[in-house]
Amino acid sequence: MPRMKQQMDEKILACVYYGPNGERLIKRGCNLARMLDCPLYILTIDPQPLDEMNAEKANYIEKWRRMAIANDADEFILKDNEERPVYKVIAEVARQKGITQIVIGQTVQSRWEMITKESMVNCLLREIPFVDLHIISVARYLKDPVSNYDKGVRAYLVKDAENFRLVFKHSKNVVHEGIFFKECGTDFNNGVFKFMNDKEMLHVEVVEDYVKDLTDVELEK
Predict the structure, then answer these.
(1) Which end of the chain has the lower number of beta carbons within 10 A, N or C?
(2) What is the pLDDT of residues 27-42, one digit of tens each?
């Protein structure tokens, strides 16, 4: 349970998207919230339903959720299966939560992009002019990252000597049930197995049908 903040007339919303800049934006939001001793909310938006997201996206979301808890954020908000423009969703959350300051990343746009389409920042300023925007310059990153993994399929781990073996048929020997994301471009079962272990979501590496240990792996590009 987050402690009661002293400054309730200010509320921070950090908006994050997939890629290496998400953590930086969360940290900036956390620093602002600590400085003002006010509530902090972390928001991410995705057009896909949560249960259809690939291993990389799922890993980012779990990492951000952990960061929210570790930094005493008041709420981590995931808007999945969302068809509306991103700025519309951000504006809606800002109104619902009484947000006064928003932290958002801005990639370096080319001159052609600046001429041909309106930036999300301008859209937000028009939608919620009462909110202060903190525009954090971030490195250009793939706007819609192409996954390194195929769509996940139901799979299981069974104990095999000192390791775990990946199988696709349930049996009494199953130790863990989860989703297997096969690495693109490989003929073998190499990839990532995602499952719940003691109420924690883990992603473990699979090499040619085998998992050597249950250590959570990072899926950064």
Answers:
(1) N
(2) 899 999 999 999 999 9
